[in-house]
Amino acid sequence: xxxxxxxxxxxxxxxxxxxxxxxxxxxxxxxxxxxxxxTPVTDYLDVDQGAAARASAEVVAVAHGELPTxxxxxxxxxxxxxxxxxxxxxxxxxxxxxxxxxxxxxNSELHELWMESDAQSDWVAxxxxxxxxxx
Length: 135
Description:
This protein has 135 residues and is an all-alpha fold.
């Protein structure tokens, strides 16, 4: 999986998505969120799609001033580089919440991997924190 930790941007897939966000901006956020939220639970949400949705939801939270703990100022600046464009997107917080709901449901590879790991409680705590920050 390439995951090093339960927090966002501690895995290869999230870091790959961050490069896309850096160059594509808010469009990358919308695409990742809508792809995840639009994937029926009867279909499989692969790890890269899940990581992109999670990273995008984190960008939405940061754009609305809901900052994660333990993230450097440089990383926060990067996450908020397109913050005004992200905030301007219609229903963006509810879209992020829908994507997060899909990410932690059945047929989500990222969720399955974490549920099988010894760090399951860390993953659940990280998802709960992100959900709280998206309210």
